[in-house]
Amino acid sequence: MKILGIGSRISHPEFGKGVVTNVTSQQYWITFIDSGLETIEIDAEFEVIEAAENDVDTVSLYDVEKTLKSLLQRWTDITPSAPIADKWKGGKLLMDPGQPGVQGKEVPIDTFFHKIVMVRDRLRVMEQKINASKLEDADKVELQQYITRIYGSLTTFNVLFKSNNDYFVGEKTK
């Protein structure tokens, strides 16, 4: 059995005439003149009016998402998401107070990690805004040094990141 390509025209006994608008491994998505969009099984009974080759250049949802993320990152202050290390997925952060009678707190590690990444991203935005500001160079350098020290304070959390490219980096020793 030959699979029809997008753009093929068919006549279906129940839905009438239509055009193939999408193809999955098991179904055709067909837009019918009278009944609109319907899905039918690939092996369903229908008459092929005109077959289009299955060489239509399609784009996957992954490609669309990747392009959209790239554009958003380029034109906004959104930074790429940093994945959490596999060993921490589904884990929890337990905070056990040192005082008796005080209730501890349990936080999903994914939630905590998301907050750490948001801090990192906001620091990066602040850094960009400082660099683009009309401050004197000496003031810019001083503020950059504060941000570098903040990054250094946050290096403890690098263990949560899947990739060391996403790590916090403080002042490098010479």
Unreliable spans: none
Q: Using DSSP, what is the number of strands?
A: 7
Task: For the record, give the distance between the C-alpha atoms at the N and C termini, rounded to a whole number.
Answer: 69 Å
The fraction of residues in strands falls at 15-25%
- The coarse overall form would be elongated
Largest beta sheet, briefly?
5 strands, antiparallel
> What is the number of helical segments per DSSP (H or I, 4+ residues)?
3
- Structural class of the secondary structure composition? alpha+beta
Radius of gyration: 27 Å
Q: Indicate the percent of residues in helices.
A: 25-40%
Order of helices and strands: EEEEEHEEHH
Overall mean pLDDT stands at: 84
- Largest beta sheet: what is the strand line-up? 4-3-2-1-5
Give your account of this protein's structure.
This protein is of the alpha+beta class and 174 residues long. The chain has 3 helices and 7 strands. It has a 5-stranded antiparallel sheet with strand order 4-3-2-1-5, with no helix packed on it. Strands 6-7 form a two-stranded antiparallel sheet. A hairpin with a 3-residue loop joins strand 2 (16-23) and strand 3. Helix 2 runs antiparallel to helix 3. The longest helix has 24 residues, at 109-132. The chain is elongated and about 75 Å long. The termini are far apart.
The gist of it:
With 174 residues, the protein is of the alpha+beta class. Helix content is 32%, strand content 21%. Strand 2 and strand 3 form a beta hairpin.
Question: What is the element layout, followed by pairings?
Answer:
Layout: E1 9-12, E2 16-23, E3 27-32, E4 36-41, E5 47-50, H1 61-75, E6 92-95, E7 105-108, H2 109-132, H3 137-153
Helix pairs in contact: 2-3
